[in-house]
Structure formats: structure tokens, C-alpha cells
Amino acid sequence: MSNPLFNALGGGMPQGNGPMQMIQQFMQFKQNYKGNPKEEVQKMLQSGRISQQQLNQVQQMAGQFQNLLKNIK
């Protein structure tokens, strides 16, 4: 099952500039996204597009990424 967030960001981990390119892609995604993210995640869980395990993994990765960004300051 493909990951919709990674697909929206261009298919996963970017080539080239690595983290900086990923941040730029995320910012572009954020600007273009319309809607309530929590509602979208709930819809995806309910429809079976993602599993609870996938959500847990992404949330863990997001927490790690957030900590990484805090340490860069």
C-alpha cells in the first residue's frame, strides 16, 4: 500500500539535497493543502487506505523529525 503523504511529497525521500529538499517539498505541500488534516487521517483510517500501524509509524517518524529540527536551531 502506497503512502499518500509520501506520494504527495513526490514519492518519498527526495534525491539530491536530502533534508533541505524534503523541507521545501513539505512547505509546498502545506501551502497547497486545503482541509483539516486530522479529519483526513480519520477518513483514511476508516476507509482502510492506511492502517493504525502505518499511522503509528508516521507519527513516530514525525516526532523524530521534529526533534531533529529542534536540535538544528
Q: Look at the helices and sheets and give the structural class.
A: mainly alpha
Principal-axis shape = globular
Mean pLDDT: 81
Radius of gyration: 13 Å
The strand count comes to 0
Helix content: 55-70%
Q: How many angstroms separate the termini?
A: 35 Å
Instruction: Work out the helix count.
Output: 4
Element-level helix/strand string: HHHH
**Total domain modules:** 1
As residue ranges, the low-confidence spans are none
- Largest sheet features: none
Strand content: under 5%
Q: In a few lines, what is going on in this structure?
A:
This protein has four helices and no strands.
Q: What does this protein structure show overall?
A:
This protein is mainly alpha-helical. It has one domain (4-72). The chain contains four helices and no strands. It has helices at residues 4-8, 19-32, 37-47, 52-72. The chain starts with a helix and ends with a helix. 1% of the residues are buried. The model has no long low-confidence stretch (mean pLDDT 81).
